[in-house]
Structure formats: structure tokens, C-alpha cells
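Just curious. Invent one:
>
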Amino acid sequence: MLRRIKTAVLLALVVGAVGVAGCSEDNSADGGGGQSASSGEEGVIRFTFAPDPVWRWLKDQGIKDEMEQKSKIKILDSSTWDEFGIYAGGHADVVSIASWEVPVLEEQTNVKSVIFGKYNIARAVIAVKKDSPYQTLSDLKGKKITTFTTVSDALLWGALVKKSENVNFKAKGGDYEFVLTDVQNMASLVNKGDADACICLPDFAIKEFKSGDLRPLYDGKSDAEVFQDQIAQGHPGPAINTFVAREDWFKDHQKEAQFFLSVWERGIKEWQEHKDEIIAAYPQDFAAANKSDEDWISGWLDDHNWFVDSVYLDQQWIDGERKVFPLLKETGGMKQDQKEPTFEALGPPASGS
């Protein structure tokens, strides 16, 4: 869920495709049982994903096992921070990445892929010290900006402010000095005065936001929320986590793909009903160090929820999500001739299947 290992994702894809089986936290294909499965095996889904609280909940509550037993379909999951390398190396059928990263994934790996589900929208905010005079990114021209990546949220924020404020918010040749650092250090560097602003993930800036030491710009809106306001009213905002499958696998395994989404749809319902319980059960996935932190991030999520209402795609959502690609092309974040990703709307499994 945290999706924080994006710093060198696109540069490392090709390199990561070699020897990736040893990169995960758990080298077994099922995350613990030592099972393995070849690509395209009927009734099997090889899924790689960074550690995620809803997925943990589904497993620990026995929900995943129960659904697998009923459907006779098994999800073999590997928990890893190198999910992109695992997928690129052919060791997974399904992976989760941002919708706007899929074109480069395909280009770098020559793996034709389809987006068939959604999970989280982008959630990064721009923040400065509480006594800072800056109100917008255009006010910050020439200043130091901390980020954990030059793609992902940085790319999206760059496109948004290029269009609305006509500034070049890029790591190379832009109007700013980007300071690459670990995700947990971004807010603290700003608070110490070593940088002027951050592209912060709220869960990794709990201490500074909770104390008021840092002040979010743009009314605390994330890049997804700004996108909604400026580009696609009514759309929840670009998805930082979509479910992506190899095109050949998806075409031949519709039943498995439907089951996969049904499990995650149950996860979304569990999240909606048990949000605070899930945060308390897995505080590490929200960078919460204590009960006060848990309460703060729960409140932030009440106001800036980055979980989708449903994992299923429909044409209205697809039309809204597609607007991110012209924005990126217009602002230089995507090549003009770069192919846009394929979206495939897939409904729930038939009743009783």
C-alpha cells in the first residue's frame, strides 16, 4: 500500500528483471508456504505486492483462505518492495503500480499489460514549515524540495503545477533543487531547515503534521485531489495503485482475474467497516508509532481518503483516469507518441462461481 519504493523504479526495471527471485522479503511464491506455480496455470494467480494492511487483514482474518477454498482458485502472493522487478522478470501475473507508470513499464520491459482494477489514489501533499511565507510551488522557485522519487507523485505534481502555475517542477533542468531522501526523512529535513518543502506522504509526516511544525499547501490537498479540482471534476484522482496484469495472462484467465478482484473488493469493504481496527492491527503500514499517531492518521483519512470505493473499473472512471495522460504529454512528463495503457473493465464473478 505504501508504494514508496518508486525512486529508481523505472531505471531499475531492466536490471531488476535479472535475478529478481531473491529480492522479496519472502522468496516463496505464496509468501510462506514454499509453493510455486508456472505462468498461466489454471486456478492460480501469482501476485506480487508491497506489504499492505488490507491484504494482511484478509489473510489474518481467514477471509482470503475461505474465499480461495470456495472458488478453488489460489492467490500465490509474494510480499516485496521490488514488485516491479518481480513482474518484469516474469515471476508474477499481477502487480500494482500507478496508472501513469504503466506506459513506461511496457516500454522498458516489452511486456504488454492491462489495467483491470484500482485500489489507492495518489496521496502526496506539498508541505513547508509552519512559519514559512510560501503559499504555492511557484513561490518556492529556486528552493530545495525533498522527495523520495523523481517519478510517481513528483511527476504528477510537476504536471499539475506546470499547467496551473507555469513552473518547471522537475528534478533535472527545472526551477527547483530536488533532494532525494528516504521517505521517512522528507518531513524532518524540512522541519530542521535543511530543505524548504517536501512532497510528503501524510503517513510519513505524522509527527510534523500532528505538532503543526509543517503546514500543507493547497489546503492540504493531495496531488489526486488537485487533479480532481483542476482536470477531472468528479473523478477521485489518478490511481497510485492499479492492478495490472500481463495481457496474455489476462485474456486467458478471466475467471482468475474476476476472483482476484472479488477478494480485493471484499478487502475494501473490510476497510470501510474496520478502518480503525486495521490501522491498530498494522500501525507499521501507516508509519504510526503510538495510539496518538493512529488517531491522527485515521482522522486524516476521514478527510483525505486514498482508498477507492470499489476496485472495479467502469467507463466513467476510465474516462476520468485517461485525462492524466494528455496532461503529462502537454507538460512534458510523457512522450507525445507514447502509447497509453489499456484498461479492461471486468465485473464480479457470476453468483455461485
